[in-house]
Amino acid sequence: MGSFQLEDFAAGWIGGAASVIVGHPLDTVKTRLQAGVGYGNTLSCIRMVYRRESVFGFFKGMSFPLASIAVYNAVVFGVFSNMQRFLSQHRCRELEASPSHTLSDLLLASMVAGVVSVGLGGPVDLIKIRLQMQTQPFREANLHLKPRAVALGEQPAYHGPVHCMATIVRSEGLGGLYRGAGAMLLRDVPGYCLYFIPYVFLNEWITPEACAGPSPCAVWLAGGMAGAISWGTATPMDVVKSRLQADGVYVSKYKGVLDCISQSYRKEGLKVFFRGITVNAVRGFPMSAAMFLGYELSLQAIRRDHTVTDP
């Protein structure tokens, strides 16, 4: 088990890269819908993005999360797996000898993974969203900006992920990279609980007892359903997080999580917190299915090679 961390890193990179490629186009649509600027519904958003920016508009901001997903995804999956194993060993159980999982172990491991994910993923998510949002149609949004802000809004605010990061640090300090971290924490801690726990139990439920391990089909189905459940239920705080992180591209409107919730509710009602829930649930299925399938298959392949070379 000494090479477990390296195995997890490699498997996490493959699974994470697959999920980014599969899920990013709908993630762009989700982010722009939730920010509440210039778009009506999902179909009108897709048509507008395609008409104005072609198919490449759906992949805006993808390079940074794709490049950084190796570290992020490996750490999240590594923390979850290692925490779960630690709890199992602490209770005098060997994880390899018993495929059963206790809910308390899964719950605690998921919560720790959620906290760690915010520390690593906050800046990545912020830069991704800033790049996705910088072509918003501010004139149509009727934001009553000053002439200078409108003029700036006609040009891209950032030239790429590195320039975006440098601009944020220069204008907002290092703390600016964690804008929306509170909302992200409130989203990811319960979100990862509803991500890993359904996956583990659905996987065990689908897989026959006679089988040594889950089939690719079982992994795909369990991972997809877990992703749809997690992203669907996380939508309200995801809306708040997206608005806080998109805030500041051209103008700042929100003072914090509570102010964002208050302003959003006052202007658009309760339904605003469920904006993008369909896109989230639909996007969550293939994205998470690709994530878990890539992770599990690559992990099995790596461990099989280790078994052959070092019996």
UniProtKB/TrEMBL annotation:
<keyword id="KW-0496">Mitochondrion</keyword>
<keyword id="KW-0677">Repeat</keyword>
<keyword id="KW-0813">Transport</keyword>
<feature type="repeat" description="Solcar">
    <location>
        <begin position="214"/>
        <end position="301"/>
    </location>
</feature>
<dbReference type="Pfam" id="PF00153">
    <property type="entry name" value="Mito_carr"/>
</dbReference>
<dbReference type="InterPro" id="IPR023395">
    <property type="entry name" value="MCP_dom_sf"/>
</dbReference>
<dbReference type="GO" id="GO:0005743">
    <property type="term" value="C:mitochondrial inner membrane"/>
</dbReference>
<feature type="repeat" description="Solcar">
    <location>
        <begin position="3"/>
        <end position="86"/>
    </location>
</feature>
<comment type="similarity">
    <text>Belongs to the mitochondrial carrier (TC 2.A.29) family.</text>
</comment>
<dbReference type="InterPro" id="IPR050567">
    <property type="entry name" value="Mitochondrial_Carrier"/>
</dbReference>
<dbReference type="GO" id="GO:0022857">
    <property type="term" value="F:transmembrane transporter activity"/>
</dbReference>
<dbReference type="InterPro" id="IPR018108">
    <property type="entry name" value="MCP_transmembrane"/>
</dbReference>
<dbReference type="InterPro" id="IPR002067">
    <property type="entry name" value="MCP"/>
</dbReference>
<protein>
    <recommendedName>
        <fullName>Solute carrier family 25 member 48</fullName>
    </recommendedName>
</protein>
<feature type="repeat" description="Solcar">
    <location>
        <begin position="101"/>
        <end position="205"/>
    </location>
</feature>
<keyword id="KW-0999">Mitochondrion inner membrane</keyword>
<keyword id="KW-0472">Membrane</keyword>
<feature type="transmembrane region" description="Helical">
    <location>
        <begin position="57"/>
        <end position="80"/>
    </location>
</feature>
<keyword id="KW-1133">Transmembrane helix</keyword>
<keyword id="KW-0812">Transmembrane</keyword>
